[in-house]
Amino acid sequence: MQVRGCGTALVTPFRQDGSVDETALTNLVAWQIESGIDFLVPCGTTGETPTLAHDEWLRVIDLSIEAAAGRVPIVAGATSNSTREAVAKAQEVAARPGVDAILTASPYYNKPTQEGQYQHFKAIAEAVSKPVILYNVPGRTGANLEPATVARLAEVPNIAGVKEASGSLNQIAEICNAARPGFSVLSGDDAMTLPVIALGGVGVISVASNLIPREMADMTRAALDNNWEAARQIFRKYLTLMQANFIESSPMPVKAVLAMMGRIEENYRLPMLPVRRDTRSKLQRIATDAGLIAKPVAAPTEAAGFFVYENWSAGPHKAVLHRSNCGQCSNGKARPAGHSANHARWHGPYSTLAEARQITQTLPSVLIRSECKCI
To answer: What's the longest Cα–Cα distance across the chain?
Structure first.
């Protein structure tokens, strides 16, 4: 088996109570396949896998297999910085009939030598019969998997490829040149997909395809078919979106946009958090420009009322004055991420700005008063 084309590193949707949202995950997988994605990668880093319990990790993979129903290959994530645990996890997912290959990242935090990484991956590959895809992401793991080591590992019969996210085109060029024929070099960065294919790579494991599966698949296929003009047109249209997914730590931005699209609820597990307010505004603008969400239709200024938002989630009571059509107000229904309904409330609506300002001054217990930019 050669892993080829565009595969989605799936997010893991959560409910508000923190449990895995199985319905949202199943729907996401179905939409990905209907949009023409080539393969799926559940339980990669984008799936917040370090926060999943063992049973949840297996459940996410099983749900992906069930929803895919054999229509596309499943490349299951199985990573640990303990070689013994990584071997056990790989064996566990390899025993599942619906798993076609295994993605496993370099041991994180340990910072092993090149020989240590070679022995780690070799032990995993020799413990299973299914294809193994290496994942080199030194920005996350702290250890780079060098081209000479990849070339050695490519000689292990069932090590089928590498997801390369070092960000170095020189390194990727060396890997493409040194690895055996048929060894799959996959971009681990959406924005590097076209240059990686130009060097001899065969696709991408994508974050952006969570949002634009059809477009990422079409771009990748066009490049693989040497239709570079079509590939570049798609690339230019969506480059800003690809980059936006890393304004803050992934998968925080991509989950925020998926929630804007109505595909999932925007819930995370610590240490992941909702994106900052300024990031959210950028993501909304970029997603709107990309056609992923509708451009909000602002009510006429003269028709807008006014609301006062009071909160005391930390420190003294604060009051902020908003127009009712402000995105942060939404007619007194919005609530900033992390603000509990038990520690915040809206006052209003008020028909005039003067009235709203007067109310703000007379609210008891409020020590800090301000006005939103919408005013």
So the answer is: 75
Confidence of residue 297 (pLDDT cuts 50, 70, 90): low
Tell me if 41 sits within 8 A of 6, measured CB to CB: no
Residue 230 sits at φ, ψ, to 5 deg, of -65, -40
pLDDT at 56 over 90: yes
3-class SS shares of the chain: helix, strand, coil, % to 5: 45, 15, 40
Q: Structure pTM?
A: 0.78
Residue 337 confidence class, pLDDT cut points 50, 70, 90: confident
Q: Which of 211, 215, 334 is nearest to 263 (CA)?
A: 211
| Alpha carbon distance 335, 37 (integer Å) | 35
Tokens of 127: 């413990």
Strand order in the sheet with 5-9: 39-41, 5-9, 203-206, 184-187, 159-164, 132-136, 101-105, 75-77
Task: From residue 373, give the alpha-carbon distance in Å to each of 276, 322, 360.
Answer: 16, 8, 16
Catalytic residues: 135, 163
The per-residue pLDDT of the chain, averaged, comes to: 93
